Amino acid sequence: MPPLMPPAALQAAAEQAAADPLAIVHDFINEAVPHLLGLDELEYQVGFDLAEWCEIITHAPRTDGRNAAFTPGETAPPDDAYWVRVSHRDGRVAGIAAGRYLDTDMGFYDYVRAGKLWWPGRPDIPVIPKHAGPKGRLAHTGGLWVSPEFAGIGLSWLLPRLNHALALTRWNLDWAIGIAFPAIIQKGITANYGAESVELMLDAPLGPGGRQAIMYALPNSRTFLIDRTWNDLLNVRSEKDHKMRDFAPFAKRKNESPIRSH
What is the pTM of this model? Predict the structure, then answer.
């Protein structure tokens, strides 16, 4: 496979990235994302009123429901949060996602276990991992929905990457942690969607009507996210005519079902 960039340009870019790793993430947000979305006549906007995210996902087809962590009034108000909307130039909503900073000294699993992410008032949520979980500057990223009208074009590959990049630059994170249901895990979350690791976090009758809730945590470290973003940025720069679907392993099938992630 030929080098992605001329050696001199690659070396210069590598030196810049080593000096300021978040510069990679900013370049991805400001350069690669608008380019890729534009090839499919899409654009994105960032908002800070989670009620707007909630309104869209409440009425959206083919979802697994709302994530209470991003739903105003269902959990304690987040210390800081945002949501991102990808829209077609004709106004149709193509996809949404959200991010929430976790203002805590606790590990992520202890935070969930104590009822601080969901189900306030339940102090002993049966989180399966016994360890505290990732610590440091944490964000919960998720709230992902892709419209069936835009399934199969690679948006469910790009939108989580954009979400992670926004969270990194906003909060200078150590970890961005998502949640996924079994159907997504079975599709190959690490190989196809770029998650660093997967851990079964919950298997308990805590869903609506006592339904069994099975959730996997997707902890993504700062190093992993920056390295992945660097690789994606170089690929997009090298293959300017490639669309999202050309980078997404699962998007070759035109009728790919939309991704529904909690």
Answer: 0.88
